[in-house]
Amino acid sequence: MDERIIHSLDCVAEGAAHLASVEPRFARALELTGPLPLRRRRDGFETLLIAIVSQQVSVAAADAIWNRLKAARLTGPRKVLRASDDDLRSCGLSRQKIRYARALASAGIRFETLREEPTDEVIRTLVEVPGIGIWTAEIYAMFALGRADVFAPGDLALQESARILFDLDARPGEKALREMAAPWSPWRAVAARLLWSYYRVVKDREGIR
Question: For the domain that residue 172 is a member of, what is the CATH number?
């Protein structure tokens, strides 16, 4: 695999400098946000389970559910498979998310192998699991695997942040934002970090867990 990996804050700073040089609006946004976060996470089952928990709920709600799952020691695949629906529901998981959590637990994904796979193959592997769509797979590739050129144009906070920063008449849809982000390669994952940070500044709330 020959893809740039974000390992450190120096990598993020390098990407931010590149983006500021090619897009003046990014330069102005960086003046407001300051240095961008690394946002690296450990790869593996837990990180994907967190992503499922976080779907279609606020950051605060996702944190509350995750903390209850941790307190109940229900964050590993075997524990999820052995737990009753009532156990998982009491932590805040909906019926649909319980099904997704069990599907992930039984999928047998070889996470160490994903580290060496091209991003397109990582995403193809992950979206085969019920409950893991393109957004979740892209977030995993971006944060857990550190892929520098992954973007998540289906993310509503990214869409809204782009609308404000680029003074658009309407929030761009997934296809439009994916096309808009093409010139930000090879640092689209840093562009995402910048847009999320900008969203936090202008909206005074987090856009991503």
Answer: 1.10.1670.40
Whether the CB-CB separation of 80 and 98 falls below 8 Å is answered with no
Per-residue pLDDT averaged across 26-37, rounded? 97
User: Is the pLDDT score of 146 beyond 80?
Assistant: yes
C-alpha distance from residue 154 to each of 46, 55, 109 (Å): 22, 12, 24
Q: How far is CA 159 from the centre of its chain?
A: 14
Task: Tell me the whole-structure pTM to 2 decimals.
Answer: 0.90
DSSP letter for 182, please: G
Q: Give residue 145's region: left, alpha or beta (phi > 0; psi -120 to 50).
A: alpha
| DSSP symbols for 151-168 | --TT-HHHHHHHHHHTT-
Spatial CA neighbour of 190 closest among 3, 65, 11, 7: 11
CA distance 170 to 6: 32
Structural domain tally of the chain?
2
Domain that holds residue 180: 9-39+149-203
Helix ranges (H only) for 34-173 are 45-54, 59-71, 77-82, 85-90, 95-105, 111-114, 119-127, 134-139, 156-165
pLDDT of residue 1: 67
How far is Cα 131 from Cα 51, in angstroms, rounded to an integer?
Answer: 10
